[in-house]
Structures are given as structure tokens and as C-alpha cells.
Design brief:
Chain lengths: ~450, ~375
């Protein structure tokens, strides 16, 4: 694989496996009894999840005072986690929609999994605004509905835009995912002999018949959905960034935020997808479906988006100086050398310096190294949101109201628990559904399409 | 497969994508119209081979997307500029740029949902698990790694022997007839079966029970207490903090509320009658205010006309008429003293009526007295 012939289209799937073998391999985790490894993993993620449950229980019973939030730092771990998880979701849509529109066939092996991660990440993210409002059982108030007070929600507020953006994003991702799953449900339905599984797959497969009269519309709809999901995914993190940029807090009120946030989201999302895929391909023996080439391409995207994020950090500093506003200048100097300087430098070293190692082809293709770098990227991106939110809020216009934020144990329980929530869903997903799209992968195997001899 | 069943179609299985494309082209050439090609994944160039018209789902997305755009725009405009106009941040009531994000999101949402719904439920008529092709060997193969053509028996050109021969001529590796499933043809809806009815009842009971519990019980348990439980004192509550045990506190001694003055003639009504002067001139406003206050506070005993004919007559020592010579000859200040301090069974109205209101009541009372004892000159 050291020299690649670029004149020929690369095969996505290594080798030329018989199609039935692909089906067997992909549906193996679903058909086989869960292994010991699976249960160990589930125990770990389940324990983390129970931390979330306890943390939320404490929060709801005693109130949000259990968190370290204060005035002026009213947004702290909760919103940091929210932005972090929404960002994680963006890689999935990028892979499934944008790369689909760009005809990047290498996406087929990882698209289903990445879309699943999108859905679980958005679910995890969705937890945080709900618990942040303090009374999540009244969350319906967020939507404009006819009510006794005959008052409506504030359509001028970025927080409301966020409600619409995140819920639309979740629903559209779910639809996109389900549409992709229908043919696979049908394949599974035909494969299984278990009665309960057959009924379940029949219900979810809707009686798909693999008819080419259907495939034609299906491909059209897939294209339309990809066309919609592309601007949607860009809009979601743009609107998340509006939560900050539309306010007047120094360090937030910046026009660079939308592209900067979108790049950061893709950056952290790819890091997370890469981390998880490396484990998945190892456990389920998908090395020739999720190939090293695919991972290398993902690393290249991380290098690109990581550099964009680094540029944005520099540009923020430049604009703070160029604006001539004393408070803006102070905010950025405070970020780098103030109370939260340690967080800032963790962010810089993880997000800007570590992905630069991907310039080396050797590192791009060495799995342990790229795994570690991706973990660094995720840590760095979490700190990026922390730095933006907490360092800006704790030092705003009025020195008399300055206050530092110190997280409590409940904050940490919820942070760790959110990973438990995400990974528990992910683990259940790997056992319940095909983690690679069978129909799409089969369509990209060499020799699976008619030859071009007639035309 | 037993004969005697009703034939649905003849199917041929093919091993390579090239063969199926060739076969599909031949089917179209031969003129069959009711046929289908089933492949485990979409094949390139199959649309051309089958001469399918381009999908119209793009128009569905366009129509529903634009409807979403328009509906959202109108809804937001109505909500924020018509139904409940609030000025936010000094922006116009209808501030379009702020609505763009939500309009965009709803556009995408409605287009995505409706395109998929119309594809699955209207274009494909799914869910359909009772199609004759289901549960056959043919479906098992084309769902995995084979390619198949199914030529239906209700095609006008259909002839069993010819179709069989045709499928052989295009090199089908296997030819399978598909029959209608007896059970599915004679299938009747089992809505009235006891099992199904019991199922419905159980679902109804559980749903209503859970709904009742969550809305009427759960929502009033801790922590869902609608902020009823607050660490503050309401009126009339006890407080251990203060020596007298009252949660409500008295104002600091000597506090005078805005607009009021200290009454200096306590226990000296006659002196008040001499010293106090009515500061409120008789005017339309003052009489109107006096009437309102008189009707509220004085009329229950003294009657609307101040003649002592009232709804409380007979239940108390009868209240006196205010048209007596005594009262008519009292100065305003003397009446003021009675209203302020009370007299006999009459309590003080100092806490109900402010100084100005008391004077207004007195002005009104003077008007009533004058009405019953008009002078000659008033008639002219």
C-alpha cells in the first residue's frame, strides 16, 4: 500500500469478498450471543451511566445549587457538555451527507456507525439544556404552543433557535439513519430463523422488496436527504455558536464564531468517530471494511479542521487587539495568562499542536499513535468550550461581579455520566443493528456493479 | 410449491450484475410491463435498462419545503407581531432576520419528513409484509447476493411456457414460480377477536392510568412541586426568629405612609370639629370618588341615601339617619372625627379610607343631605 496508483479508482473494501460473506460478517455481532468482552464494556459504561443517574437525581432533588455554577458563571459544565456533544454529532452527518454529496466512496464502511454516533451524541447533548433549565419536566414550554397565558416564545432569541436547530437535527438524523437501515432490516429479515427477530425485522423493514422500481426513488430520497442534511449540519453548530456570538460578553461577541465552531465540531467529531471505530474494527474483525485507508483519510480531515481551529484561535487574539477595545484585549490576555490559563494551554496543546503530527504519513497510518492523538483532540475540544464559556463569564465587564467557577462532585458525575450514556447506547446499537450498511458496502465491492463495456 | 395455487409471477435468478442488466433490457424489449427487478443494492444503469422515468420525489421535497418556509414565516409573524406583540431589544415587532434560523430549520424538517413519508407510504405503499414475494426462496436470494427478475402473471403478454423459455434464453441460473399465499388471500381482519379486544382494553387502561398518575399525582410529588415549597414566609405564618412569633412585621414606629397625615385629635371629636377644615373643594371628581367609597363603606348601615334604610336594618341597633339636624349642623371636621375614630357601634374607618377619601365621602354626604332638604333657591 506504499505506492498508490491514482489513475484507478480505489476499492473501498479491501480484497473482493463474496457478498454473502459480507452479510455474514456484518450481521455476526447481531446473531451471535454477546461475548464476555461486550459484557465487560457494558458494565463499565453502565457504571458510568449510573453516575449520571445519581448526579441528576441529586440535581433534581436538591436543585441546581448542587453544581458549581454561580453568578456570573451561570453556564459552566452543563453548557460546555452540551456544545461538546453536539459537536461530536457533527462528524456523523458530515460523513453520511457531505461526503455522500462529494461522492467519497470510502465513507460507506463508516457511515452507518458515524450516523449512529450522531444520534446518540445529540441525545446526550439534548440532556444538558433540559437539566440546565432546572425543571426538565416542563421542557415543553420551550416550544411555541397555545397556552393559558396566551403568550408565545421569543423568536428573536438564539436560545430558541437552538431548540429548533437541535430538535430538527435529531429528527432529520434519525430519519436519515432509518431510511438507510430499511434495506438492511429486510436483509436481516430474510436471514434470520428466529421468530421474534423475524417479526421485529419485518416491522422495521416495512416489507422492503429490493425492487429496482423502489431503489430508484430510494436513491433520489437519499440524495435529497443528504442535500438537506448538509446545510442543516452547518446551521446547527452555527446556531449553537449564536448562543454566544449574539450576546455581548467579551470573548463571545465575535463574528468568527460560526465557522470556527463548525470546524471545531467536525474536528472533535472525527476524533471521536476514529477512536470508536478503531475499537470496533478490532473487536468485530472489520479490518477490511473499515480500512486503514479510511482511517488515514479521517486523520487528514482532522489535520485540516485542527489547523482551521488553530487559525481561529490566532484570529480571535488578533481581532481582540485590532478592535482596540480594552475589555476585549483584557479578556484574551486573561484567557491565556489568567486564572484559567492551564485550561487554555491544555486546549492549545491538544487542539493545535497534536494534530500537526498528522503531516507525517507514518503517523497517519499508525493506529496506536492516531488513537492517542484523537483522544487528545477530544480532551482539547472539551476544554475549548470550557475556556470560551467559563473564562469569559467569570471576567465580564464589571470587576465587582467577577467570580471564579469551581466544579463540584455532581458536575463531574454528570460529565462522566454523559460518556456512560453515550457509550451505553452505542454498545446496545452494536448488538442490535448492523453497524455497517450492508446494502451500501455490497454496492461498492469490486465487481458488484455492471461493467462499463456497453457504454 | 403445490400447483392448484394461484400463480403470482415467474422469477429468474441471475448471478452477475451484467446478466441482470441484459435481462432487464430484454424484458423491456419483449414488452412486458408488469415485472420487477430485485437486487440487494441499487445497480448503476438499471434505471436506463428498465426505462424508468426520473423520480418525482424531488418535487415533493420542494413543495413541502416551501410550504414549511411559508407556514413558519406566517406563524411567527402572527405570533410576535399580531397576537401578542412585545418589543424585544428595541427591534421591530416583525424582525425578519432573527426569524431566518427557525424558518430554515422548519423548512428542512418538513421537507425531510414529508419526502420520506411520501416515498414509503404513498410511492411504495409500504408497509407491506404480505406481498407474494415475501417468504420465498427468491426473496432470500435477492436480499443477499443474487439478482432477480419477476414477471407477473397479470401481465397482458404473460404466458407460462413463453416466460419460462424467455428466462432461460437470458441465462437465468434458476427459475422459480411464485404463488399467492392461500392464507394471505383469504385473510380477514381479526379486529373483533376477543384476544385483540382484550389487548386494546389493556392498552387503554395502562395509557389512561399512566396519564392520570403522571398529571395528577406525579407532577405534585417532590421534586415536581411547581415551586410551592419555598423557604420564605407567607402572610400570617409564624416565625421563630422574632420574639412575638409573627412572620409579618410592623412598620418602624413613627412611620407615616405616603399621602397620609397624623390625626391629631384622637379622643377630641369636638375639637376636631372646630379645628379641622375640609381641604377638598367640591368637584365632580371628588363627588364621584365619595359616592364610590360611601356605597362601599357607609351604605351597608346608613343606606345608599344616608337615611338609615339599609340592608342591615333590624340586625343591629338601628343605624341613625344622617339627615338629622344634628349631623346636618355638624362641621365637616366633626364628621371627619366620627369616620376616623368611630362612634358607639360604628368602628373606625381609618384603615379603609385615606384622608382624601374621607373628605370626599363627606362631600358626597353633604350632597345627599342637600338633596333631601333642598332650599327654595335650589329649585330655580
Amino acid at each position: 500500500m506504499s505506492t498508490v496508483d491514482y489513475t484507478q479508482e480505489l476499492s473501498v473494501i479491501e480484497g473482493k469478498p463474496p457478498l454473502r460473506e459480507l452479510d455474514d460478517l456484518i450481521s455476526k455481532p447481531i446473531d451471535a450471543k454477546p461475548t464476555r468482552k461486550f459484557f465487560i464494556a457494558l458494565t463499565i459504561s453502565g457504571s458510568m451511566l449510573s453516575l449520571l443517574v445519581i448526579g441528576l437525581g441529586l440535581t433534581f432533588y436538591y436543585g441546581i445549587g448542587m453544581w458549581g455554577n454561580n453568578i456570573p458563571v451561570g453556564w459552566a459544565f452543563d453548557i460546555t457538555n452540551f456544545v461538546f456533544w453536539v459537536g461530536i454529532g457533527h462528524a456523523g452527518t458530515l460523513i453520511s451527507a457531505i461526503l455522500f454529496l462529494l461522492r467519497q466512496k470510502w465513507r460507506t464502511g463508516i457511515a452507518r456507525f458515524a450516523e449512529g454516533m450522531t444520534i446518540f451524541a445529540v441525545m446526550t447533548a439534548g440532556l444538558f439544556p433540559l437539566i440546565h433549565v432546572g425543571r426538565p419536566w416542563l421542557a415543553a414550554y420551550l416550544f411555541p404552543y397555545p397556552n393559558q397565558h396566551s403568550i408565545w416564545v421569543n423568536f428573536d432569541s438564539p436560545l430558541l433557535w437552538d431548540v429548533f436547530a437541535v430538535s430538527t437535527y435529531f429528527i432529520v438524523s434519525l430519519i436519515f439513519w432509518y431510511v438507510g437501515l430499511i434495506p438492511d432490516f429486510a436483509t436481516l429479515r430474510e436471514r434470520t430463523n428466529n421468530k421474534i427477530k423475524k417479526i421485529t425485522y419485518s416491522i422495521f423493514g416495512l416489507g422492503w422488496r429490493f425492487s429496482n422500481k423502489h431503489w430508484q426513488h430510494y436513491e433520489m430520497v437519499y440524495l435529497i436527504l443528504a442535500g438537506f442534511a448538509t446545510p442543516l449540519v452547518l446551521s446547527v453548530h452555527t446556531i449553537v455558536s449564536f448562543d454566544f456570538a449574539v450576546s455581548i460578553i467579551p470573548g463571545w461577541h465575535a463574528t468568527i464564531f460560526p465557522p470556527y465552531f463548525v470546524a471545531g465540531a467536525v474536528f472533535s467529531g472525527f476524533a471521536m468517530v476514529q477512536n470508536v471505530l478503531i475499537i470496533v474494527r478490532k473487536i468485530f474483525n472489520y479490518e477490511h471494511i473499515i480500512t486503514l485507508d479510511t482511517l488515514e483519510k479521517m486523520n487528514k480531515i482532522m489535520l485540516l479542521t485542527g489547523s482551521m481551529v488553530g487559525y481561529a484561535y490566532a484570529m480571535e487574539f488578533f481581532i481582540a487587539w485590532y478592535s482596540g477595545l480594552p475589555i476585549e484585549r483584557f479578556t484574551f490576555i486573561n484567557r491565556a495568562f489568567g486564572s484559567y490559563a492551564w485550561a487554555y494551554w491544555v486546549m492549545i496543546s491538544c487542539n493545535v499542536i497534536s494534530p500537526q503530527l498528522f503531516w507525517s504519513k507514518k503517523i497517519r497510518r499508525t493506529i496506536p499513535v492516531m488513537f492517542v492523538i484523537a483522544i487528545f483532540v477530544n480532551i482539547g475540544m472539551w476544554f475549548e468550550r470550557f475556556v470560551i464559556i467559563v473564562s469569559s463569564l467569570s471576567r465580564d465587564f464589571l470587576p465587582s461581579s467577577w467570580h471564579l467557577f469551581t466544579p463540584t462532585y455532581v458536575d463531574f458525575m454528570i460529565l462522566i455520566g454523559s460518556f456512560g450514556f453515550f457509550f451505553t447506547w452505542l454498545l446496545l446499537f452494536t448488538k442490535a443493528l448492523p453497524v455497517v450498511s450492508m446494502a451500501e458496502v455490497k454496492a461498492t465491492v469490486t465487481g458488484s456493479q455492471p461493467s462499463h463495456k456497453d457504454h | 410449491m403445490m400447483s392448484g395455487k394461484i400463480l403470482y409471477s415467474y422469477t429468474g435468478i441471475f448471478d452477475t450484475p451484467d446478466q441482470i442488466i441484459h435481462a432487464a433490457e430484454k424484458v423491456v424489449e419483449t414488452g412486458y410491463t408488469k415485472y420487477d427487478v430485485n437486487t440487494p443494492y441499487p445497480l448503476h444503469r438499471m434505471d436506463k435498462a428498465m426505462k424508468l422515468k426520473p423520480s418525482k420525489l424531488g418535487y415533493v421535497a420542494l413543495v413541502f419545503g416551501l410550504s414549511g418556509t411559508l407556514a413558519t414565516l406566517l406563524t411567527i409573524w402572527w405570533m410576535s407581531a399580531i397576537d401578542y406583540p412585545i418589543v424585544i431589544g428595541g427591534k421591530p415587532l416583525f424582525s425578519f432576520p432573527a426569524y431566518v434560523p427557525i424558518i430554515f430549520e422548519v423548512t428542512v424538517l418538513s421537507a425531510a419528513i414529508m419526502t420520506v413519508v411520501s416515498m414509503l407510504f404513498f410511492f411504495f405503499k409500504l408497509p407491506n409484509n404480505s406481498h407474494p414475494l415475501h417468504g420465498t426462496e427468491y426473496m432470500k436470494k435477492v436480499s443477499a447476493d443474487k439478482y432477480g427478475i419477476s414477471i407477473q402473471a397479470d401481465d397482458p403478454k404473460f404466458n407460462e411456457a413463453v416466460v419460462k423459455k424467455f428466462l432461460e434464453s437470458v441465462h437465468a441460473s434458476e427459475i422459480i414460480p411464485i404463488y399467492w399465499d392461500e392464507e394471505e388471500i383469504s385473510h380477514k381482519n381479526k379486529i373483533l377477536e376477543p384476544k385483540f379486544i382484550i389487548f386494546l382494553i389493556v392498552v387503554a387502561v395502562i395509557t389512561s392510568g399512566v396519564t392520570y398518575f403522571s398529571f395528577n399525582k406525579l407532577m405534585y410529588m417532590v421534586p415536581f412541586d411547581w415551586m410551592m415549597n419555598q423557604p420564605k414566609l407567607s402572610a400570617q405564618q409564624q416565625s421563630p426568629i422574632f420574639a412575638d412569633g409573627f412572620g409579618m412585621r410592623q412598620p418602624v414606629a413613627g412611620t407615616i405612609s405616603r399621602g397620609s397625615m397624623v390625626y391629631q385629635f384622637k379622643g377630641q371629636p369636638d375639637l376636631a370639629g372646630v379645628k379641622l377644615v375640609n381641604p377638598i373643594p367640591i368637584s365632580k371628581e371628588s363627588l364621584a370618588l365619595g359616592q364610590v367609597k360611601f356605597d362601599i363603606y357607609c351604605s351597608p348601615c346608613h343606606g345608599y341615601n344616608a337615611d338609615g334604610v339599609s340592608r342591615l336594618r333590624g340586625q343591629f341597633p338601628n343605624p341613625p339617619s344622617l339627615h338629622s339636624d344634628k349631623v346636618r349642623n355638624w362641621s365637616d371636621g366633626r364628621i371627619f372625627a366620627v369616620v376616623t375614630e368611630g362612634q358607639n357601634t360604628m368602628p373606625s374607618y381609618a384603615s379603609q379610607l385615606s384622608f382624601d377619601e374621607r373628605w370626599a365621602v363627606i362631600n358626597y354626604l353633604r350632597a345627599l343631605q342637600r338633596a333631601l332638604n333642598a332650599k327654595e333657591s335650589d329649585v330655580q
